[in-house]
Design brief:
- 28% of the residues lie in helices and 28% in strands.
- It is an alpha/beta fold and 206 residues long.
- It comes from Aeropyrum pernix (strain ATCC 700893 / DSM 11879 / JCM 9820 / NBRC 100138 / K1).
- InterPro entries: Calcineurin-like_PHP_lpxH, Metallo-depent_PP-like, UPF0046_metallophosphoest.
- This is Calcineurin-like phosphoesterase domain-containing protein.
Length: 206
Amino acid sequence: MGGSVILHVSDIHCSLRRLEDIISSLPVKPSTVAATGDFECEKAAVAIVEWSRREGVPLVAVTGNLDHAGVRRVLRSAGVLMDGRVDRVGGLVFGGVGGMDPRTSMEMLLRSLESSGLTVDVLLTHHPPHGVLDTTFAGVRAGLHDLRSLVDSLKPRAHLFGHIHESPGIESIGGTVFVNPGPAYEGRYALVRILGSVVKAELYTA
């Protein structure tokens, strides 16, 4: 299969059993794993880091709003933390905005992009941008306005996020494919295939 296949998981919330279900149900081996926050405990972060190493699949990750310093330390020590960073992984340029402090993380990412001269192919965040796959059970659009402005400016090919458990889905707006896979603690995940300018995403439940 040509191009890149990204396994996108979010909102594990310490559910190692469900993470194992997802891994065992994968229809294809991904070329990259993207984890978009709310591991909620160190053991969940360790589990996905160790699996990616065993399989030889690169991992990129951002923190979520419910993560803490221990989770961030695990991800940073593994060299996979993307909060406020940009990096080329598996032929694609990933940029990350962490969920622990999104505003500072966005500022750091913009500085990283300016100094590196890179253009983001895939944006990883925990929170959704305002107005996209961000509707809560109460009917409130809970995405971040600043993040929507960032996406409009960067124009990535794909924007992968989570946080709003009740709004899984895929939307294509202005040349960007937005993906909220739903929470991994319910066995939900997405596979995102990128070949040239073509981005296709599918949602799965293990």
